[in-house]
Amino acid sequence: MAEHALKSPFLREAEARGYIFQCTDLASLDAAMCAGPVTGYIGFDPTADSLHVGNALAIMMLRLMQRHGHRPIALMGGGTAKIGDPSFRDEARALMSPERLAANLVGIESSLRQFLDFESSNSGAMLVNNADWLDRLSYIELLQDVGVHFSISRMLSFESVKQRLEREQGLTFLEFNYSILQSYDFRELNRRHGAVLQMGGSDQWGNIVAGIDLVRRTDARQVFGLTTPLVTTSSGAKMGKSAKGATWVNAAKLPVFEYWQFWRNTEDDDVGRFLRFFTDLPVEECTRLGALQGAEINEAKKILATEATAICHGREAAEAAAETARQAFETGTLTADLPSREIPAALLNEGIPAFRLFAEAGLVASNGEARRLIRGGGARLNDRPISDENRLIGTGDLVEGALKLSSGKKHHLLLRPRT
């Protein structure tokens, strides 16, 4: 919460939505944003070939900057990814091959273009890769230019570093350089593009402050840092993870319907907060929807799912996913838009026990979990309950060439035979 009344529209809305966790000099940043457009950035290391829901709050901050007339920079870590950010990790990241890194960079760029407008001339987002300058650095040059401004004792005081040093894995010298390179990025973006604000998750606070200090020491310029809160669910789970793994924004890695369903499955107590975080709906409307009780909160969840999916995949795809859900959950219709998987046709020709089918389909993690699901009445085949876990399911159960399997009320898929 700000200690003074914020005046800039960006910071006012960011505060109202709960985006602000820490800021190095909120009053001065507020004044700078009132004076004119500000350029700010967030870094994304290409550790995979797609962003996921865990990156969503950072992306929403960049989108909010753009909506209020400021210029966001999405910095892809093509250089820093060759080291790996050690912040709050149990062990070092495995180093990527050049081919894997190049493929990941293409995927991250594609993900960012789903959310941000890189075409507008004024407040259009910029896409930058820190390999453009980090790959050209000589080690001696870096030590002389930047290394003299870093205190080892101060770096050891960073909470992320202390936690790693207390673990068996320890911290390699390679990873220890990450903070220096991230600081170098801030100075380089300030010099090249006038970036005066670095944003990131709360785990990046130490690295952001180090960059601010480097810019002040070497260039005598005032720059700012702002972090967002760590997002967890009411039950304490880390945002963006599910039983099936990361919730990817790339439709090739996760179907749009499953992305929509991720948001639809939000816990009741998180609905209002997630509406403020992950949609563009007015804050007052988010608060109203989040306060609904009983069956009405499910309608709010559908709005959350559709609005969040529209930001990522477009309005048409989001509404199609909502309609697929309505048909599958409310009318029991077999719809081709449900997530689909294949199973060897031979298994259906011979007949496969129901518990094995659910495990093979990936709706449960094991045969034992499948048996418990069926015994508990939570398994359905073509919208009809399965009571016998050993019942043989075969080609005679196919409807329009597929089996519709349901685990509880929220998880459905079409299983098709593969010849």
UniProtKB/TrEMBL annotation:
The keyword Nucleotide-binding applies. It is found in: Cytoplasm. GO terms for molecular function: ATP binding; RNA binding; tyrosine-tRNA ligase activity. GO terms for biological process: tyrosyl-tRNA aminoacylation. A motif ('KMSKS' region) lies at residues 238-242. PANTHER family: TYROSINE--TRNA LIGASE, MITOCHONDRIAL, TYROSYL-TRNA SYNTHETASE. Belongs to the class-I aminoacyl-tRNA synthetase family. TyrS type 1 subfamily. This is Tyrosine--tRNA ligase. It comes from Swaminathania salitolerans. The lineage of its organism: Bacteria, Pseudomonadati, Pseudomonadota, Alphaproteobacteria, Acetobacterales.
